[in-house]
Every structure is written in C-alpha cells, then in structure tokens.
Amino acid sequence: AAHRRGSQTAIPCLLMRGGTSRGPFFDERALPEDVAARDAVLLAALGSPDERQIDGIGGAHPLTSKVGVVAPSARSDVDIEWTFGQVQPAGSSVDVTANCGNMLAAVLPFAVETGMIEPAGDRTTARVLTRNTGMIAEITVQTPRGTDGQRHVEYAGQAHIDGVPGGSAPIEIGFLDTAGSVAGSLLPTGNVRDTVEVPGVGQVEVTLIDNGQPLVVVEGARFGATGYETPAEIDADERLKAEVEALRLVCGHAMGLGDVTGKNYPKMTLVAPPAHDGSVSTRSLIPHVAHQSIGVLAAVTAATACVLEGSVAARVAEGITGTEPTVSVEHPSGEFSVTLGLDPADPQKVVRSALLRTARLLMSGDVLVPSSKFEKE
Ligand code: NQM
C-alpha cells in the first residue's frame, strides 16, 4: 500500500512497456479512491503539466505519457479490469475516454506480477475489461515455470513488433464487439464515406469510423502529403497540421463528439497506397503529434475501413481477400498485421479481430509524489 517517505508518499508501481507505449501501472487499491485526488497523483507521477515532464517519470511524448490502473473484477464474464489514462505532457487532465490497445498488452502481465491473476499453465489466458469503453479482450501470455519451479510471466522470445527493437514473448489479443467505442457506432454518420466542408481547406472526402478507436480516415494526398512522411516531417509541417486539425474539428461534430478542440480524439489517419508489401499505408496524428507507428485499436479500425466498400481507405488499399483477411497496416516504423473475422453472411461486417503485441516489465518499486498531492482527498 501507499506509505509516507518523508514529505513524499511512495506508491507501489510497475513501470511497463505495453506494445509501442510505456507508462506506470498501479493496483487501483493503492491509489486514492476519489477521482480528482487520483488524477492529481497520476499527473504528479508523470510530471504533468510540463512539456518535458522533468519532475516525473513521463516520457514527454503522448506515447510515453500514459498510465494503467488495474483491479480484480467482480464480474463473472471478466477476470480483470483496468482504466487507461492518457495525459498530454503539457496537459493537466487524465483522459479516460478512449481505448489503448498498446498499454492493454501490459495489463495481464501486471496482474500476474502482482498476484491478481494466478498463472494457469505454460500459457495463461484472461478476459480483460477496459473500463473506458466497456471493451473486453481475451489475452494470452506465456507463463512457463522458472528455475525456481514457480510460474512467471515470460518476456523473452522471438516475437517482434515493428516500433520495438528486438524480440519478445508473444502476447495474443483477441477483440469482439469493438465497434462504436467512443462514437457510439461503427459509422457514426451512417455513411462509409462523407464529404465535409473544412474552413480554409474546402471539400474533403473522409471515412468517419470507430471500431475501437474513433478515426478520421483521409487521403494524405488531399493535403499535399505523400502519405509516406516520417513522424518528424509531419511534426515539423505546421501547414499540414493546421489543415488536418481544421478537418478534425469539423469531423468531431459530424461524428457526434461535439467540440473536440481539447479532446484527444478523434485521431487522424492519413492513408495512401501501400509502399511495401502491405495492404495500406498510414500516418497517424494522435491527434496533434505524429504517432511513431500506429495505435492498436487505431490499426483495427483502419483495417476495418479497408474492407468497407466505398471507404476512403478501401480506395487505396490493395490485396485484401477472403473472410479472414490479414490486413497489413503500414506505418512509419514498419507494419501492423490485424486479422479480421468477417461475418460470412455479410462480408461488410467485421465481427472480431486478432493481433499480436509484446510487453515488458521495466522497473518495479514505488513512485513518489509530494504527500500534499496524495492527501488532497
Ligand atoms: O489505438 C496511441 C498507442 C495509442 C492508442 C493513440 C492505441 C490504440 O499506440 O489502441 O494503442 O492513438 O493515442 O498506444
């Protein structure tokens, strides 16, 4: 449990990489119950608000300014629950609205590490509820016996995900029912493709879609981008970012999300024909900074867009066939393969998705916050 250490409060914490994201994970019971007090502690732990997060353990980028709060579940259909928190480094709020499939990959390892879940054999499978959206994922991690005869989470292995150097043990993730996570339905406007009028830009064709992550899918070419830029090139292109943000604000209203000026969603996905052997090329803004690869549910949603006839993504995607297509979503550091399960009776309907992630426990101990933050309750 949390305890005093001089003028600070020490809170048990595991620092973990989940997929291509990183952040501290907590047992919910070690944090203040009151949400405002909890958020003050999480912000202090990361060092926000501050662009550099110099007074905390955040990594000064949206992908490394994330937290996970995990708890056992009382539900019979779920083994473990967690809340994902997104903090913009310079921001002063913890956004618990949307999904994060990268941080999700570290939740079951955290639960085994902390004794919330007993390893069941060489492989341990659990159903994990993301409270943000109600999404349930079935996740399998490797839990072989160690030299001490006990079962531990295995982190070492040969599985590679682009965006993370080297190999790791595979973590298998399966999703059902991810449609409408934040926007309420898969196609919140009811259309596979819309034309919106954007101030200063003109008419733009978009696909507004949410199969786990609310996305605006648009051709990079519409903004004079090739769609193959590096994240640094996108981050440096003020004109491109301003036009994409203008589009985002219009699409926020069209998607029923209201004024999204201060919100972390929808994310922007610039698509182009595949540049390598993949199905489609993507560049993501999350929403103001370029993603180094692509989010997990963002990849699921982009892949889903690719199979919907008439969508902006389907127009540039190549080589997707069958009722269980593996869609290779290209991104700035490689590709992300998502296997979609299509309804055989309606191949325009995606009913499940499966993919591979990895994770690693990086540090185990206490994170320290000024006690004035912890006792704000
Ligand atoms: O879409 C970044 C990430 C994410 C979210 C973001 C994610 C997902 O890569 O499931 O994983 O889109 O802000 O961690």
UniProtKB/TrEMBL annotation:
Q: Which InterPro entries match?
A: OMA_tautomer-like (IPR047687), PrpF-like (IPR007400)
| Gene3D superfamilies cross-referenced by the UniProt entry | Diaminopimelate Epimerase, Chain A, domain 1
* Tagged with keyword tRNA-binding: no
Enzyme Commission numbers on file: 5.3.2.8
Q: Which UniProt keywords apply?
A: Isomerase
What is an example of a GO molecular function annotated in this UniProt entry?
A: isomerase activity
What the record says about family reads:
Belongs to the PrpF family.
What name does this protein carry? 4-oxalomesaconate tautomerase
Origin species:
Saccharopolyspora mangrovi
The taxonomic lineage of its organism, from the top, reads:
Bacteria, Bacillati, Actinomycetota, Actinomycetes, Pseudonocardiales
